[in-house]
Amino acid sequence: MHHHGYLWLGEKRTFDRESVRRPAPQAPGAGGDEEVRERHREAVAAFPMSEVPPLQTSHWLLKPPALVRGTWAQPRDAGRWLGERLAEVAPRFAGEADRSAGRLARLVDAAVERLARGGDVSLGHYLRGTLFHSVALVTCSPNRAAPGLPCPTGGHGGGAGAPPPRAPVS
Fold first, then answer.
1. Contact (Cβ atoms closer than 8 angstroms) between residue 9 and residue 138
2. How far apart are CA 108 and CA 110, in angstroms?
3. In whole angstroms, what is the distance from residue 126 CA to residue 134 CA?
4. Which of 19, 50, 122, 138 has the lowest tally of Cβ within 10 angstroms?
5. Is 146 exposed, middle or buried (0-12, 13-18, 19+ CB in 10 A)?
6. Would you kindly state where each structural domain of the chain is located, as residue ranges?
7. Residue 33, class by beta-carbon neighbours within 10 Å (0-12 exposed, 13-18 middle, 19+ buried)?
8. Which residues of 39-62 are buried (b: 16+ CB within 10 A; e: fewer)?
9. pTM as predicted
């Protein structure tokens, strides 16, 4: 078991577009409307390439490996990364209570506990203005919510073969 980190910062209105945040439904029947089939083809192509956080946290595993910001074998290491990401943007959180160092530490501690039990973590915060910050840690190999999903990095638990962490988004 290992954990992948994902990060997104973007316009709230983009985050609110649920159509880009879910995988395409089952393909329409052959006798269906051509327009419906075309929309389905577009959805099949768009979802995996979209960096917008999926509605279901485990669906990050359907995204390309390039979106993985880091991979850790130990929950505590993944939690450290989470804490760093939160600290980077905390001064911009819209809610003053969300900026509290104690609150952020409790979020990280709870995330580490959840990861240790095989769960996923997904946090989102409104930033001043119209931006939304999303950070997720997804347990992999297997994912408890979706055990059939393959590891986007080929099953690597960090180290050799795992993609290098990407630079943080600001």
1. no
2. 5
3. 9
4. 19
5. middle
6. 2-17+56-140
7. exposed
8. ebeeeeeebeebbbbbebbbbbbe
9. 0.83
Task: Name residues whose C-beta falls within 8 Å of residue 6's C-beta, 6 or more positions apart in sequence.
Answer: 53, 60, 63, 67, 68, 69, 134, 135, 136, 137, 138
Confidence of residue 168 (pLDDT cuts 50, 70, 90): very low
139: which 2 tokens?
């347990």
Q: What is the 3-state secondary structure (H, E, C) of 58-90?
A: HHHHHCCHHHCCEEECCHHHHHHHHHHHHHHHH
Question: Of 56, 44, 68, 45, which is closest to residue 18 (Cα–Cα)?
Answer: 56
And the tokens for 124?
């989102």
DSSP state of 165: P
